[in-house]
Amino acid sequence: MKESRKKLLKGIVTAAAAAGAVYGMNRLVFFLSTMKDLLTSKEKSYYNWRFGDIYYARKGEGRPVLLLHQLSASGSDCEWQSMIDELAENHTVYTIDLPGCGRSQKEKMVYTNYLYVQAVNDFVKHVIKTKTDIITSGDTSSIAVMACHSEPSLYGRFIFINPESLDHMIRTPGPQQKCLSYLLQLPLVGTLYYVLANSRWKVKRDFRTKYYYNGDRIEPGMEDMFYEAAHLGGFAARFAYASQVGYYTRINVVYALKQIDHSMYIIGGEAMEGMDDTIAGYTHFNPAIEAVRMEGTKGMPHMEKPVETADLCKLYLER
């Protein structure tokens, strides 16, 4: 009996020590990843939204344009920083960190496509307060399409940079995705998984394999900004990521795409895999969409060739 108690006590102590070690490691990673304070802005502006404060920045004068960063753990408005000045010459440029991302509040909840649509519509109505053009990066094209479908009078022109394919958007949460999303929401194991899935090595690999056609063009410090954005807000940062990998941020936009009669344009990276099929899918359901491929770019043309991308965007926005 005493031997059994000793084994039980030893097991409890070992488990507690392991849990403490994991917790300590998680805390250390989050602390070290944000200690450079690269994303702190002198002019902090927040929209007090009902599901958490939304960080935003504004620059320039003219017809407003809202820039939406890609939905990812490391997503924030820093991906637009190299082309904001170009656009601000003729436009009032708004950038936001979407709910659960970057400097915006990170709540412990499920983030859905509909929630992001509400956030964008409310931001346009209460902050911008006039008809707005939108430029999106990656999968936020679905947010823009659904926002326009629900509140068409709020929007003018749309530019989608490397939009998510329609085939990917229609994927719904299956058992595997739900299980992974649930795992990520667990206090200790979920945080550890998040730390490993969004390591500095992973961010650097994404820059060289997904975002840039030529890795020599990567701006100094940009990788650190993405890495920091993924760890701002503490352990709650994992919840938006859990919703992304669980497919809760995806939605079928085909019906909405067919109904919209606003001007829409696609800018695709020349080396972006599957972009020809993606463009074909969009233009099939809305033949009025215009598309162009940007030479010498991949997943982030607006970071790799910001001046050329901005010039093309200005051309579309002034039509």
TrEMBL record:
One of its GO terms (molecular function) is hydrolase activity. Coiled coil: none annotated. Residues 64-127 form the AB hydrolase-1 domain. Gene3D superfamilies: alpha/beta hydrolase (3.40.50.1820). Keywords: Hydrolase. The keyword Hydrolase applies. Pfam families: Abhydrolase_1. The keyword Cytoplasm does not apply. SUPFAM superfamilies: alpha/beta-Hydrolases. InterPro entries: AB_hydrolase_1 (IPR000073), AB_hydrolase_fold (IPR029058). This is Alpha/beta hydrolase. It comes from Coprococcus catus.
